[in-house]
Amino acid sequence: MRCSESQDPADPSPMLQMQGICKRYGAVRANENINFSVTRGQIVGLLGENGSGKSTLMKILFGMVRPDGGTIRFKGQALSGHTPRDAIRAGIAMIHQHFMLVDAMTVAENVMLGWKKAGAWLHDRQVAEQIRSTSQEYGLDLDPDAMVGDLPFGKRQRLEIVKALLRGAELLVLDEPTSNLSPPEVTALLAVMRRIAGDSRSIIFITHKLAEVFRVCQEVTVLRDGKNAGRCSTEGTTRAELARMMVGREFGLATPRVEMGSGAEVLEVTTITLKDSSGLKLLDEITFSVREGEILALAGVDGNGQTELVEVLAGLQAASSGRIALHGRDLTKTDVTQRLRAGLAYIPVDRATTSLVPGMTIAENLGLRDFAEPPLRRGLRLNHPAFYSRAVSRISEFGIRADGPGATVDTLSGGNQQKIVVAREIGRKPRVLIAFQATWGLDPGATRFVIDQILALRNSGGAVLYLSSDLEELLGIGDRIGVIANGRLVGIVPREKANPAEIGLLMAGGGLLPAALEINEDLG
Amino acid sequence: MPSLAPLPSGPGPSGQVPTTSRGAAFRGLFSAAIAVLLAFAIAGILILVSGKNPFVAYWALLRGAFGSTDSVTFALNKSTPYILAGVGVAICFRARVINIGSEGQIAVGGVAASWIALNVPDLPSAVLVPLATIGGALAGAAWASIAALMRLKRGVHEVLGTLLSNFVGVLLVSEVLHGSMGEPGAGFPQSPLFPQGAWLQPLFEGSDLHAGILLAVLAVVACHLLLWHTPLGFRIRLLGSSDRAAAYAGVSVARTVLSVMLLAGALSGIAGAVEVLGVHFRLIQGFSQGFGFNAVAVALLAALNPVAVLPAGLFFGFLEAGALAMQREVGVQSSLVYVIQGLTMVFVLCALAINSKQQRV
Ligand SMILES: Nc1ncnc2c1ncn2[C@@H]1O[C@H](COP(=O)(O)OP(=O)(O)OP(=O)(O)O)[C@@H](O)[C@H]1O
Ligand SMILES: [Mg+2]
Prior knowledge:
The structure holds 2 protein chains of 2 kinds. Chain A is of the alpha/beta class. Chain A has 3 domains: 1-91 and 172-178 and 207-249, Rossmann fold, CATH 3.40.50; 265-343 and 430-521, 3-Layer(aba) Sandwich (Rossmann fold); 359-426, no CATH class. Chain A is built from 18 helices and 22 strands. In chain A, the strands form 5 sheets. Chain A has a 6-stranded mixed beta sheet with strand order 6-7-8-3-9-10, with helices on both faces. The longest helix of chain A is centred in the middle third of the chain and has 16 residues, at 183-198. The longest helix of chain B is centred in the first third of the chain and has 31 residues, at 19-49. Helices cover 73% and strands 0% of the residues of chain B. The model of chain B is unreliable at 1-20 and 357-361 (pLDDT under 50). Magnesium ion (MG) is lined by residues 54-55, 175, 413-414 of chain A.
């Protein structure tokens, strides 16, 4: 089958058929006459740039957003005016980017939460047994008795999948499930997805990584500017063709890498150790330095101490021991504000509760870190015009798709929210940038843009500490590459000597086969 | 407390009110109106059940609230402490500091103002009244700081701290009235009448309307500017939305919590001072009775929006004034007012919860 502009599916009675879906938010047409269908037993990719309407379409399917027009048929039944509860009952499950789990409960308790069947006739043991058998069946490797708060990102995601499966979901919607995962975790997740689909269930898979689409999807639908840009079978298309459909243009060349020589040391971190209340070492004698005009890239599977490291550096947590210095000045005892003033910028991973305030406007969020300094403060007052004009220029520089500086951030698409964080932190021309999953949820074009911005910062003499689980991105951007595993920094090598397979082994603590490391090449 | 975070309103970054907020403000007004109407409808049924004609009763209520200059004056004076204390509570709740201690802060503010009025009676009025009012503000702020410090230093939740200090504050009033400040020989625990120089002067010749309402309007405007146009207001809103975001933005939790508590305490203290200097002209046991609850109710009815505290406070004041008339003329229990107030609150909170759910798509 060739690609086409929203051609009717070959399958005459698809499991899910959405037709003519429209949704407007003020002047923004989030969905404009979108057709979308899913055949039973298939994994269907849903592609599109940031703000192209993917999440909106899925929220409409799941009953979280009311469409302005269009029809939905699921398993032959019309779905309209439904709530998420109705959608779940009908057999649809949606796994959000931000999980809906209770940290202080075990895996089994989270599964039982809000599950009618569990209350009526199941007991703890039986639920635990079901979790065990289901997770074995699909290769999810979940311990029913583990506390959710202790689980890394990838495991929580699996818990959401188990919840969906046990509730009898036949159609799973995964909204950007791979954005925060390291290569081996992605591989494992894709394998789980294949098994689930093999069971004559279907999956809608939203991602920005084209390679992943080719690894698991049979069908792919592409959206652009809220409209159908095309749909095709993955066998009948190429990556370049999909990329063209997404953006309607070709990518330019990457920012050239300027050789920087060895500048002065800017950020010096010496034997930083962090212990939790029980004395367990979350960070174990971490020592490194970053020079002017250098990017130090740290690889690692989520939950190995990255969050702790960046929070200690940014001043959000105090280290148990060790020293942090910037341009020779000791910052160990300083607070967030003092570090900001010293020129330290920080892009955190968690935009839902840390790096953005969803209920505030774009202009306010762009001023989140320096609202009390001129020009954003004038005398005793906030200088609203300065907030406004900064927002106008950042919105255009960073291509943020929004209804203007006064729009609240919760009305933006995920990728555009991330662009606000990046624009704020890089836009201040910091001397040191700490970036943790800076390209989370960005489409290939925006990813390229952010990487270019970080390279430009480096080229102008900035020091960058770049943490990510995306190995390919790290190898592309880092001047030196290090690995963080179990709270330790293991081996930093210059980029010429970096070997993906070796780094992969280090990331997994040595226990992983190199075969599991397929490297994505999305930007090529 | 229901989620207090997503309540955008007020001016946008350009200084104008962005359209989204205007929509939200309109929705807020609309749901408040519906809530009030529903509350009156249900209370009307209760009046009917008690054997009275609800239309007659409500007519008496209306006349009691708006029927004459005197009744309007009475109602405005009643609204004043609700607005003063309510706007402080609204600011606290915005920062997710659940201050329910207005009652105690009002009581202590009244005690301080009374003490000044009785102990330096010879000062000229233009000095004595402001001095007593400021004394009330300082006392209220100091009282509130106890609960704030208990939270910051000892981790005692401010709900507990403010609740307990309410009991103590109210008891303090009767303590001083049975001791040094009591009027000897009076059948009721009260202080001697203040010297005329300490009386809050009426705004108009021959009217009972005192200057407190001006202070209340001033406080509302000041709190609005504080919340939307100053760095402290930005900190308050940040802390109210997420602890982690506040930390990331370099906001000091301790300083912000202390600031809002001191502010609310000072405003409640002023309310107490205005009550004793402008209405009773003496300290009376139980003068702050129920004010703390009403302040919280007013703040919530206003959806924690400082400007909206003004109409919300007036609503409570006029409702009470009208209810007294209704009781006098028709014989309907004035406790029915509490029913109407309570029902309004329930409906408004439901409406707010629905709104915020819609915003969190
Ligand atoms: N509640 C809302 N209010 C106003 N506009 C909205 C709202 N939700 C989404 N939009 C707008 O609709 C458009 C589509 O958003 P959507 O979240 O569907 O994009 P997306 O394809 O999921 O993008 P991303 O890849 O960045 O997650 C965006 O321009 C967004 O700003
Ligand atoms: Mg999205």
